[in-house]
């Protein structure tokens, strides 16, 4: 993906953060400033998309870990797992493993709980990996 495409995507993500969630203004301003810096850098720059810091924005959880968001049943001896509804910004819910399988069922997915684009998960986890290597 070209720097121009990444910058365009970043601007969309920042706009979505502002629209969907009420983060503190400092975090929003930092993300905007980084988007402007990326735009001004030339194509030969070695700076990566992960430096934007979007993975450090607060996570919005739609439920707590005591009750499954999908089936509404309480957590039993089986732990709930975190399901990302979106990655940029992070919007998550806790669900049973079996319910997670239902969300991603290829024949009948729960599309209301899949709000990300192809490649977002890969980008997100690459950003996490890169951050952990620093």
Mind explaining what this structure looks like?
The structure is a single chain. The chain is mainly alpha-helical. The chain has two domains: about 55 residues; about 80 residues, no CATH class. The protein contains four helices and three strands. Strands 1-3-2 form a three-stranded mixed β-sheet. It starts with a helix and ends with a helix.
Low-confidence stretches: 42-51
Structural class: mainly alpha
User: What gap, in angstroms, lies between the N and C termini?
Assistant: 23 Å
**Nearest-integer average pLDDT:** 76
Beta-strand content bin: 5-15%
Number of strands: 3
The run of helices and strands is HHEEEHH
Largest sheet: 3 strands, mixed
Layout of strands and helices, then pairs:
Elements: H1 3-20, H2 25-40, E1 60-61, E2 81-86, E3 91-95, H3 97-103, H4 120-133
Helix pairs in contact: 1-2
Tags for this model:
134 residues; 3 strands; globular; mainly alpha; 4 helices; 3-stranded mixed sheet
Compact overview of the structure:
Helices cover 41% and strands 10% of the residues.
């Amino acid at each position: 993906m070209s720097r121009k495409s990444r910058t365009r995507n970043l601007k969309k993500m920042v706009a979505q953060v502002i629209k969907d969630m009420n983060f503190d203004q400092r975090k929003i301003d930092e993300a905007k400033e980084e988007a402007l810096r990326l735009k001004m850098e030339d194509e030969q720059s070695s700076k990566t998309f992960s430096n934007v810091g979007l993975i450090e924005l607060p996570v919005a959880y739609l439920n707590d870990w005591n009750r499954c968001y999908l089936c509404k049943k309480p957590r039993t001896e089986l732990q709930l797992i975190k399901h990302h509804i979106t990655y940029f910004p992070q919007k998550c819910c806790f669900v049973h493993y079996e319910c997670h399988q239902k969300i991603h069922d290829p024949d009948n997915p729960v599309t209301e709980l899949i709000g990300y684009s192809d490649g977002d998960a890969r980008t997100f986890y690459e950003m996490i990996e890169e951050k952990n290597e620093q």
